[in-house]
Write the structure tokens for this entry.
Amino acid sequence: MRRVVVSPHPDDAVWSCGGMFGAWAADPDALTVVTVFDGGPAAAVRRAEDAAALAAWPVRAVGLGFPDAVHREDRYPGPLSRRRAVHPDDAGTAEAVAAALAPYLREGDLLLLPLAGRTHVDHVIARSAAEHAAAGTDVQVAYYAEFPYRPPLPGGPGMEVTEHRADFSAWLRGALAYRSQVTEMFGGPLRFGRALAGHARTPAVWREHRLAAQDSAAAK
């Protein structure tokens, strides 16, 4: 199966799904990671960290170069504003992201999107744009809970969750490549590792979220 993971920012895909990358990329050209918001004046460091992390697996990595919400300060002047609704002036951003994603979605059998529940406005835009781009195609859609945001309650309305055993060692190694974010958000690798272990639990699992209606349709 060919999978396309939509990562709102550098680090989101690896931090949230990295424990599965080894299994998903076992076949040639089976895994593509598309990072949406990896542009802006200070993005070079994060792009380099992303490249280093993804180099651990045979992954096709694509960056779309849209600026992070932090660089759209006229719309999102502070951290709290980025946890709220999409600004009306970002309607054009969502349309442009959908158009940029479309060619890559056609290359996959399964599209993996962030759940984007009470996380970050860029996650909301990435999810809605990808859903729009995938509408009317044969690609299946599944969702992942973004680390380090608080995970949603199991399942949720109309959502079914399947747990898959994950490779925590590879997950942690890849995740620690994002040194700038590990330091800024957690103060260093020790606290980060504990947080990721708590997210993955023991034994480590990755949770695939799917809309129940989609599962029923796929089974027909």
In short: Residues 216-220 have pLDDT under 50 and may be disordered. The radius of gyration is 16 Å. The longest strand covers residues 159-165. The chain is about 40% helix and 15% strand.
